[in-house]
Specification:
Order of helices and strands of chain B: HHHHHHHHHHHHHHHHHHHH
Number of strands of chain A: 10
Number of strands of chain B: 0
Oligomer: heterodimer
Structural class of chain A: alpha/beta
CATH topology of one domain in chain A: Rossmann fold
Radius of gyration of chain A: 18 Å
Distance between the termini of chain B: 50 Å
Helix content of chain B: over 70%
Order of helices and strands of chain A: EEEHEEHEHHHEHEHEEHH
Largest interface: A-B, 42 and 37 residues
Number of domains of chain B: 2
CATH class of one domain in chain A: Alpha Beta
Distance between the termini of chain A: 15 Å
CATH superfamily of one domain in chain A: P-loop containing nucleotide triphosphate hydrolases
Number of helices of chain A: 9
Shape of chain A: globular
CATH architecture of one domain in chain A: 3-Layer(aba) Sandwich
Strand content of chain B: under 5%
Largest sheet of chain B: none
Chain lengths: ~260, ~500
């Protein structure tokens, strides 16, 4: 699969990304997410997925390499890059003493969304995510799943072109997870790009257009499920088997990184 | 080998946890500062003994046996200490109930929880006594050196007062649980703790200001009117004071009363603690609060949105408000001094200026910490399309606006008495608040707002710089009233402290 080098075609483009913590957390990573694509990043614990996404969103500066969002250089113009994207971590970034609606108005204000649009979008999202009964209650009493949905609504209220999600399904029950999946699918259908990490391989298998597999800070495999199966030589195996085979191959002595 | 689940086993467990917590507090969570901590402790002990010596060596020998004036000083000091001990114990009890820590583990185990709570009530008394002795021990030791070993009996009095404080605070908290439920108890108990801690010291000072026109508590306790009204020297109310002077019968009685109070509290309250702790855990599972202000957040400009957010979060957190307002409690004496001066002798107003400047610096430091370091959604703010300078600018503006709201009326009040006093106060308040906010900005960290109480632990340098800065700006204000040129020296020191803080700040390096 060939990818054009025109940066504006990519929602996210990371080149030669390197970040060292105690050891290299991300080691020369090249990764591209196309506009309108649902991209899922998989990897064992400590593979560098979250570090990668934090660098993509400007929350962490890479030691080397470049990050661009729809052709905007994140390092040179972080404000412009952040304007078109949203970040959602597994730990909901909400304020206990604000109500969901207040939180959404606040986030909309941060992204400079005008008042009327913010109000309409916030109410639509609250309804869409099943938060209407809690809309005027402070977040301090909400369950983990509700809090995650409030945070997701916050990520969508300013209508980003790229949504970056780190383990968004952690702690969600089946019904909430389905709502979140549907919302994300709808966004992708309407042209939004999504990059997401998850350990729930079933979600990746069903939702992703392309899947990237990271290990030890590097992208060891990338493509559709079929392409990954071919790379792993796994026939008609499930994504779980394919993923485990790819990671195992990477870990085995003498392996060559993808 | 101690058998698991016994009182001794729980005591060993609690001692280990307390020791590690204490070590963490002293070292700021860093492992390699052991020698520095020990040296710091030795320096602190020597300094405190030096200060106690300088204070006590100049005083005339206390009458023996003590007369009414001596009993007033000792009794007043003990009452002051006890109010602080009670405050600390109240606050500690709420932590036992509400800080989940290992409670879920222990309460879900087959071990008898009342044994743990018995140990924790005892530990509270020990901690309260230890904290009081940090300040009292040097005074007691120097008194023993200068006046005789009988003064060492004061250690027994401190221990007894700590036991009574722990017993009363446990009983009051259990009573509050029964009366107003677990959810409100936390806030009410913490407010009671804050008020008790401040009320005696401040109350005596206010009475001194209103009756004698002085801020000195000792002057009030030694005034003829108060001494005449005090109980006779053979009154039982002087028992703690006699005990402190070395009357061994009094010490024995006081200690026996303390032990008895503690045993009764443990006997009756410890078995109920498990139920109360479980109720406290469920307190926040009740339906969340409905916000009545439906139109509170209306996006206008980004800085306005940030300012709104800070104000709303502060307003909706009663515990933080109580902690912040506690600092304002200490403004009551200058307020009364100002009020008395306004209607009488105007020369006293100048005394208010440094107090106001100092308080502004301290309050600004606390608020700046909340706004800058106590951000509960740092990633959200960092991922927003706003430059960091606009974010920090909006947060600092919030702090300075709050300071202006609190201290503005004082500056105006002083300006009515004397325009130069008002001007010096306004400038001093701005300088102290801006300096404190800058220090908090340079030493910012990402922590939960709920860790407000422990903010001093994260950076000792920031804490000292903030305190020194407030003191120097207060000194600058005090001297500026007398002679503007004299104020240049502390003002310059204030700037040097600020520059020093910037040079050593982690954000710069």
């Amino acid at each position: 699969m060939s990818l054009s080098s025109d940066s504006s075609l990519f929602a996210l483009e990371m080149r030669g990304l390197y970040k060292r913590c105690d050891r290299p957390a991300v080691d020369g990573l090249d990764l591209r997410v196309r506009a309108g694509e649902f991209y899922t990043l998989l990897g064992p614990n400590g593979a560098g997925k979250t570090t990668t996404l934090r660098m993509a969103t400007g929350l962490l500066k890479p030691d080397r390499g470049s990050v661009s969002v729809f052709g905007i250089d994140m390092l040179a113009d972080p404000v412009a890059a952040k304007q078109v994207m949203a970040w959602l971590s597994d730990e909901p970034m909400i304020y206990d003493r604000l109500t969901p609606l207040e939180y959404l108005y606040f986030v909309a204000g941060l992204w400079g969304v005008n008042r009327d649009a913010a109000e309409t979008r916030a109410r639509d999202l609250v309804t869409l995510l099943g938060l209407a009964p809690q809309a005027q209650q402070r977040c301090e009493g909400l369950s983990k799943g509700m809090r995650q949905k409030v945070a997701l609504a916050g990520a969508l209220v300013h209508e980003p072109r790229l949504v970056v999600l780190d383990e968004p399904f952690t702690g969600l029950d089946a019904a909430s997870a389905r709502v979140v999946k549907n919302v994300l699918r709808d966004r992708v259908r309407s042209g939004c790009s999504v990059i997401m990490t998850t350990h729930i391989l079933d979600v990746a298998e069903r939702m992703a257009d392309r899947i990237g597999v990271m290990a030890e800070g590097r992208l060891i495999a990338e493509g559709t499920l079929e392409e990954l199966r071919r790379q792993a030589g796994a026939g008609n195996a499930t994504l779980e088997d394919t993923f485990l085979a790819l990671v195992e191959t990477e870990r085995s002595p003498g392996s060559i990184a993808a | 080998m101690i058998r698991a689940g016994t009182i001794a086993w729980f005591a060993q467990h609690e001692t280990r946890l307390a020791w590690r917590d204490w070590s963490w507090l002293l070292s700021g969570g860093r492992r390699r500062h052991g020698a520095a901590v020990v040296l710091g402790l030795i320096a602190f002990v020597l300094l405190m003994h030096g200060l106690a010596y300088l204070t006590l060596a100049r005083l005339p020998a206390l009458a023996s046996p003590p007369d009414k004036r001596v009993l007033m000083i000792i009794g007043g000091t003990l009452a002051l200490y006890w109010s602080l001990m009670l405050s600390q114990a109240m606050e500690a009890v709420t932590r036992v109930f509400y800080a989940r820590g290992d409670l879920d583990l222990i309460l879900s185990s087959p071990a008898l929880a009342e044994r743990l709570f018995a140990v924790r009530i005892n530990a509270m008394a020990v901690t309260v006594a230890a904290m009081a002795l940090m300040l009292a021990a040097p005074v007691i030791n120097i008194l023993a050196c200068l006046g005789g070993v009988h003064w060492l009996a004061a250690y027994g009095v401190v221990a007894a007062l700590a036991m009574v404080a722990a017993a009363i605070s446990v009983a009051v908290t259990v009573l509050l649980f029964r009366m107003i439920g677990p959810k409100r108890t936390r806030l009410v108990a913490q407010i009671i703790a804050a008020v008790i801690g401040a009320s005696f010291a401040i109350g005596v000072q206010i009475v001194a200001i209103l009756s004698l026109g002085t801020v000195s508590r000792i002057a009030l306790l030694q005034s003829d009117a108060v001494v005449d009204q005090a109980p006779n020297i053979d009154s039982i109310l002087w028992l703690p004071a006699y005990a402190a002077t070395g009357d061994y019968l009094a010490v024995t009685i006081i200690l026996a009363l303390g032990v008895m109070a503690l045993v009764i509290a443990i006997r009756f309250c410890a078995p109920r603690f498990a139920d109360l702790a479980l109720a406290a855990a469920g307190a926040f599972d009740s339906p969340p609060r409905i916000s009545r202000n439906k139109s509170r957040f209306r996006p206008t400009s980004t800085p306005q949105v940030l300012r709104h957010k800070e104000w709303t979060l502060l307003r909706r957190d009663p515990w933080l408000i109580s902690q912040t307002l506690l600092q304002l409690f200490y403004l009551l004496p200058p307020f009364f001094l100002l009020w008395r001066t306004f209607y009488g002798d105007r020369s006293g107003a100048a005394l208010v200026v440094p107090v106001l400047i100092m308080a502004a610096g301290q309050l600004a430091g606390g608020l700046a910490w909340l706004a800058i370091s106590g951000e509960d959604a740092p990633d959200l703010i960092a991922s927003a399309p706003i430059t960091p300078s606009r974010i920090w600018g909006a947060k600092v503006e919030t702090v300075l606006a709050a300071i202006g709201f609190v201290f503005g009326p004082f500056a105006v009040g002083l300006a009515v008495i004397d325009p130069s006093l008002g001007l010096v106060t306004a400038l001093g308040v701005i300088a102290a608040a801006a300096a404190a906010a800058m220090i908090q900005f340079w030493f910012r960290a990402q922590v939960k707002r709920s860790l407000f109480r422990r903010r001093h632990v994260s950076s000792r340098i920031a804490t000292f710089a903030e305190a020194l800065s407030s003191i120097t700006w207060a000194g600058t204000g005090a001297l500026a009233i007398v002679n503007l040129w004299l104020a240049v020296v502390p003002g310059a020191i204030g700037l040097v402290i600020l520059a020093g803080a910037w040079l050593v700040s982690p954000r710069r390096s």
